[in-house]
Amino acid sequence: MRHLHILPRFGDRWSHLYLERGTLEKESNSxxxxxxxxxxxxxxDQLAVLLLGPGTKVTQAAMKLLADNNCLVCWTGExxxxxxxxSTGGTHSxxxxxxxxxxxxxxxxxxxxxxxxxxxxxPEPIPVGATPEQVRGMEGARVRAAYxxxxxxxxxxxxxRSYDQERxxxxxPLNRALSVANSCLYGVSHAAILSAGYSPAIGFIHVGxxxxxxxxxADLYKTELTVPxxxxxxxxxxxxxxxxxxxxxRDLFYREKLMDRMLPDIAEVLNAGDDLEERPGELAGRAVxxxxxxxxxxxFGEPNGPDSGRALEAGGGEGGRPGESDPDLELPLSAxx
Length: 337
Description:
Layout: E1 14-19, E2 22-27, E3 30-35, E4 38-42, E5 47-52, E6 56-58, H1 60-68, E7 72-76, E8 83-86, H2 95-105, H3 107-121, H4 132-154, H5 173-196, H6 212-218, H7 222-236, H8 241-255, H9 258-269
Parallel strand pairs: 1-5, 2-6, 5-7
Antiparallel strand pairs: 2-3, 3-4, 7-8
Helix pairs in contact: 2-3, 3-4, 4-7, 5-6, 5-7, 5-8, 5-9, 7-8
């Protein structure tokens, strides 16, 4: 059984690559895409997110190689603007997910996370005692002001954020550019969350969606990165817009070191700045298949082996301190920040 001593090297990778209308297959120890243009090698060991658009076929050997290289695979709609499914992340440890769930279930801790998320996006201090609704209003006003400023700066007409996923071609170029840029950011945020072992569903500002935490994390960077990129792309030209936006975002993410920033930023908002590495002794997990003999399967209620976890302490939850009570599962976000 192998041990994971450090997190997957998420920050060392390129951000994303979008492919469509081709066959992705294993070639030696790498991947290649075969389409009408020929055969294109894919640098699998350098990618964080692979977006597979319409018309894409992928072999089982290719998927195994992607998983072995900790590359998140997302099956998306045309131009990557809708996520249908995704693969797993790069760590089998659950302690970060349990911490995230504990913070969400404790109303006081959850509000602290909300405040830290907003504070990282605001250049000025948040007033003491401001409610989440008030801070959301402040953030909305700041974002609208950013849209107006960028429209004037690039000489682009801004009619407001409006689009319909079912009628993509009916959206104006700027709204399409924003959607494509944000989809790239969502993919990278999703990959970062999964690579560290957090849940994309347990959000703090956004709640109730399977990608709530993805939206929380992505919002930290939108007004800095994807929103200006969309305005810049439309101001330059409306031709081949979606493709140019994805390339612009790829270069921008690399230049601004987004991949290096994400995991420390996530740890900061979850007050886990000292937890950027795997804990020694944590098992990577084990594969259990239907082909295994009955005697090979673990006995329910018994640990799988040394360091497989510890029993819950009296009065405490998994990973909690002795004497801590279990938090309520659902608490309204109504108290002040």
